[in-house]
């Protein structure tokens, strides 16, 4: 037996497992397959039309790598496991497509623009959270074409509100899935995936645009990329050929005219031919009847997709229930804290009520004691009031007597003044009479002297009567007595005048003294009136204070000494 015969026969196929966002698929691949063969099989199974955004990623030594299209699968550093695991993912996020839409290189309606913007926000921010995504969180993001913004008179806040409304509907969609949905919507746009090239026609040499996409070839005017003038679907093209700068499109229907166009650049011509071949080949593959194995894999992928969708729905429901439970928990905790606060406040209020009750009981006891004290004070105040009334009556009687005595004193003073004036008048008359008497006396003396000097000798001669003569001593005595009587009358008059003057002065002094005493008496009476008023006010005030527990001694004290002094003065006046 040769050694070569003992070698194990190498297998002709190997197994791979491809994980997409929706399902997990297993394929049996030939050993000679390149990466492109496996990638095309996955694209046909998934039904993806725009394949250039995606790729197959594998993990090797804790790093990620992408499967190369041109090399054989087994010649690359793929894992040696069986089956080999690949992840079908978007190799490049369609930022270029997004930029083309925003720059209006790809026409997009306002409705589709808002929907695409909502998926772009979902891919960037994840699920919508109203507590985190506050109004204005999209202010720095460029999401809509300027043409759409200018087409409607809407503010940035209004556009953000519309985008957020759609964004909230995408809750639970993963970011990769949001990117996929963005591409699915974008690839349905009229201008999406169309590569434009400048061409000319042979006959008119007119500038045109050639558009190449997954549907076929399209001829446009340079100013209108949305509506083609002529279209050649891949299903209606029999052959495409070019010679240097000339392209020829032969329709499948031989009755139709062959279309020719020219492109001036050789490099561009090769690119046009490669795009036409690649899109036509992909179109034919999509329309080829799948093998039983591919059909089984598609069914398996469909089931796996449905299962994944169910799992996502269950996960979304569980997530929603968990969020609702968390919100309910937060509400219960908040309600518990609120109840605890209310219980604490109620306990504090109860303690305050108990303290208030104790304080009110103490105040009630104090009020009762104060009421008893006030009743006692009121009784004392009533006694003091009665005593004050008696005192006031006495004071009024004394006042009346004083006023009566004052009136009598005034009357007496008036009488004394009148008497004094009368005496003064009488003194003046007496003085005048005295002066006249003195003048008459002087004249009489002068006349008597004259008569005496002239008649003295005759009196002596004719004085010898027949009757017996008187002795000489008697005659001398008679002559001497006449001048003595005259001198005696003069001294009496002087004494009388002095007495009258002295009496007049005494009356004037007594009158002045009486007027001063009358003034003092009036002042004292006014003071008594003022004190009586204060006494009455003080009595009322003391009664009020006694009712409040603040009884004071009455301010009134009878002026017995002053009354006695006034009575003595009045007695003096009466004596006067």
Automatic annotation (TrEMBL):
SUPFAM superfamilies according to UniProt: Moesin tail domain (SSF48678), PH domain-like (SSF50729), Second domain of FERM (SSF47031), Ubiquitin-like (SSF54236)
Domain FERM as annotated: residue spans: 1-287
Keyword list, A-Z: Cell membrane, Coiled coil, Membrane
GO molecular function, one term: actin binding
UniProt name for this protein: FERM domain-containing protein
Protein residues bound to a 1,2-diacyl-sn-glycero-3-phospho-(1D-myo-inositol): 68-71, 270
Membrane topology: Peripheral membrane protein
Subcellular localization(s) per the UniProt record: Cell membrane
UniProt superkingdom: Eukaryota
Keyword Lipoprotein: no
PANTHER family: MERLIN/MOESIN/EZRIN/RADIXIN (PTHR23281)
SMART domains: B41, FERM_C
Keyword Transmembrane helix: no
Ranges in a coiled coil: 298-447, 504-538
Any single GO CC term annotated in Swiss-Prot or TrEMBL for this entry: plasma membrane
UniProt xrefs under Gene3D superfamilies: 1.20.5.450, 1.20.80.10, 6.10.360.10, Phosphatidylinositol 3-kinase Catalytic Subunit, Chain A, domain 1, Pleckstrin-homology domain (PH domain)/Phosphotyrosine-binding domain (PTB)
């Amino acid at each position: 037996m040769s050694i070569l015969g003992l070698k194990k026969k190498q297998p002709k196929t190997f197994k791979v497992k491809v994980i997409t966002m929706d399902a997990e698929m297993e394929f049996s691949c030939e050993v000679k397959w390149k990466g492109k063969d496996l990638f095309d099989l996955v694209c046909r199974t998934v039904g993806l039309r725009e394949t250039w955004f995606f790729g197959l990623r594998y993990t090797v030594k804790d790093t990620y790598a992408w499967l190369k299209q041109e090399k054989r699968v087994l010649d690359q550093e793929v894992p040696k496991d069986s089956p080999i695991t690949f992840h079908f993912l978007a190799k490049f996020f369609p930022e270029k497509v997004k930029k083309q839409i925003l720059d209006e290189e790809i026409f997009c309606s306002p409705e589709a623009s808002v929907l695409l913007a909502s998926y772009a926000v979902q891919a960037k921010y994840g699920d919508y959270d109203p507590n985190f995504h506050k109004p204005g969180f999209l202010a720095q993001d460029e999401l809509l074409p300027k043409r759409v913004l200018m087409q409607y008179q809407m503010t940035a806040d209004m556009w953000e509100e519309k985008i957020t409304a759609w964004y909230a509907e995408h809750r639970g969609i993963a970011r990769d899935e949001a990117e996929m949905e963005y591409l699915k919507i974008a690839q349905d746009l009229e201008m999406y995936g169309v590569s434009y090239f400048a061409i000319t026609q042979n006959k008119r040499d007119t500038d045109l645009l050639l558009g190449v996409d997954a549907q076929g070839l399209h001829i446009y005017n340079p100013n209108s990329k949305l509506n083609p003038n002529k279209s050649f679907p891949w299903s209606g093209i029999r052959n495409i050929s070019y010679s240097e700068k000339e392209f020829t499109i032969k329709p499948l229907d031989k009755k139709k005219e062959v279309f020719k166009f020219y492109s001036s650049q050789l490099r561009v011509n090769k690119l046009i031919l490669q795009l036409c071949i690649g899109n036509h080949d992909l179109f034919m593959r999509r329309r080829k009847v799948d093998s039983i194995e591919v059909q089984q894999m598609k069914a398996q992928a469909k089931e796996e997709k449905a299962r994944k969708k169910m799992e996502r729905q269950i996960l979304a429901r569980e997530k929603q229930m968990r969020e609702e439970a968390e919100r309910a928990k937060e509400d219960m905790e908040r309600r518990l804290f609120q109840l605890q606060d209310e219980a604490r406040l109620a306990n504090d209020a109860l303690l305050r009520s108990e303290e208030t009750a104790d304080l009110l009981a103490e105040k009630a006891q104090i009020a009762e004691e104060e009421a008893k004290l006030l009743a006692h004070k009121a009784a004392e105040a009533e006694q003091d009031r009665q005593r004050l009334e008696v005192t006031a009556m006495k004071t009024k009687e004394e006042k009346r007597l004083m006023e009566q005595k004052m009136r009598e004193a005034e009357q007496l003073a008036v009488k004394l003044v009148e008497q004094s004036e009368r005496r003064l008048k009488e003194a003046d008359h007496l003085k005048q009479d005295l002066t006249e008497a003195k003048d008459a006396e002087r004249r009489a003396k002068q006349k008597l002297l004259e008569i005496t000097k002239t008649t003295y000798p005759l009196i002596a001669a004719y004085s010898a009567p027949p009757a017996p003569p008187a002795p000489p001593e008697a005659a001398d005595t008679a002559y001497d007595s006449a001048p003595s009587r005259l001198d005696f009358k003069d001294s009496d008059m002087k004494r009388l005048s002095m007495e009258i003057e002295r009496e007049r002065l005494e009356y004037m002094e007594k009158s002045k003294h009486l007027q001063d005493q009358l003034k003092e008496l009036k002042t004292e009476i006014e003071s008594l009136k003022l004190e009586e008023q204060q006494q009455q006010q003080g009595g009322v005030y003391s009664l009020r204070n006694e009712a409040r527990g603040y009884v004071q001694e009455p301010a009134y004290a009878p002026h017995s000494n002053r009354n006695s002094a006034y009575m003595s003065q009045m007695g003096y006046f009466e004596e006067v």
